[in-house]
């Protein structure tokens, strides 16, 4: 019973972060399962089965608060499902030991870019409203879905910074769209695990506990991302990406940094991250940013507005 309670609390905390920042549910939950002795394939399968429910609830909540761009959901979600099914099916014969630190370095670069851009420049308005192209979203979805299934998490850490870096979608809609499309990825990954593993090693009581905690947090996280200023949210997301991937790099075989070095680096990063978020808050209060969804019509909305004006005229 104690294990189930801890898993429920972990699911709640993981979904609160994931729904607010577009990442970390899978990484957090899988890490906990591995720590208590679950094998990697079963851990990833357990998390993805729970994510079917949490992503459905999170997507519905984000939709309710206007955080979803459905074009992005379809264009990245379907390729992501294909990648996730492939990754889940072949997980038992794949090693991610080499790929993990390489991907962490790439993500670290994206995280630094996002952190710097939103902290010092605010919401990138130049490209807002321009549609994200399928030729960008489809390959991104396949790669993110594959890594998500093979690594127990990765849809948010890969998809969120890549779309944020494009500057074409405001942060809350990036997060809402990534969280919503993750439902398709979770269903496909779960199907792949069930085909490849059956139900071996999957504790459905653990699945239910993770799901219960996530369902409680989903609407709270969707409300939070709706009301946090884009500049502050961008700085927070960038900091999460940087800290998460620096941790992976420090613990990789490339560096194998000792505990003292790791804690010194973490202390410096957390201090810089707090300063960046504080600076973003001060700049937002000094010059509040316009709400892109209220002040600028997207290309698809303009014809409707014109038609409405003509009808009223």
From TrEMBL:
Entries under InterPro entries matching the protein: TM_pro_TauE-like (IPR002781), TSUP/Inactive_protease-like (IPR051598)
Official protein name in the record: Probable membrane transporter protein
Source domain of life: Bacteria
Keywords: Cell membrane, Membrane, Transmembrane, Transmembrane helix
Organism: Streptomyces lycii
Entry's transmembrane regions: 72-91, 103-125, 204-225, 232-250, 262-281
Disordered as annotated region, ranges: 285-313
The UniProt record lists the keyword Acetylation: no
UniProt feature, compositional bias: Basic and acidic residues: 286-297
Topology of this chain in the membrane: Multi-pass membrane protein
């Amino acid at each position: 019973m104690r294990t189930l309670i801890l898993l429920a609390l972990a699911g709640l905390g993981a979904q609160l972060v994931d729904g607010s920042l577009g990442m970390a549910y899978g990484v957090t939950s899988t890490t906990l399962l591995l720590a208590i002795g679950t094998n990697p394939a079963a851990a990833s399968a357990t998390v993805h089965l729970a994510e079917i429910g949490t992503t459905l609830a999170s997507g519905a909540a984000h939709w309710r608060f206007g955080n979803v761009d459905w074009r992005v959901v379809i264009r990245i979600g379907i390729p992501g499902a294909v990648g996730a099914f492939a990754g889940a099916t072949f997980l038992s014969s794949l090693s991610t030991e080499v790929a993990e630190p390489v991907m962490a370095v790439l993500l670290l670069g994206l995280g630094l870019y996002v952190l710097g851009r939103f902290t010092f420049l605010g919401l990138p308005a130049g490209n807002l409203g321009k549609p994200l192209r399928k030729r960008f979203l489809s390959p991104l979805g396949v790669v993110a879905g594959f890594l998500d299934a093979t690594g127990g998490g990765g849809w948010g850490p890969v998809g969120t910074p890549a779309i944020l870096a494009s500057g074409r979608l405001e942060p809350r809609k990036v997060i809402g769209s990534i969280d919503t499309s993750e439902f398709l990825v979770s269903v496909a990954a779960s199907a792949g695990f069930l085909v490849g593993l059956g139900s071996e090693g999957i504790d459905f009581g653990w699945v239910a506990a993770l799901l219960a905690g996530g369902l409680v947090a989903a609407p709270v996280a969707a409300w939070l991302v709706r009301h946090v200023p884009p500049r502050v949210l961008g700085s927070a997301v960038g900091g999460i990406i940087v800290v998460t991937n620096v941790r992976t790099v420090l613990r990789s075989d490339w560096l194998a940094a000792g505990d003292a070095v790791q804690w010194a680096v973490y202390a410096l990063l957390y201090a810089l991250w707090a300063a960046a978020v504080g600076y973003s808050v001060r700049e937002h209060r000094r010059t509040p940013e316009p709400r892109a969804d209220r002040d600028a019509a997207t290309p698809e909305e303009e014809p409707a507005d014109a038609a409405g004006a003509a009808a009223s005229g």
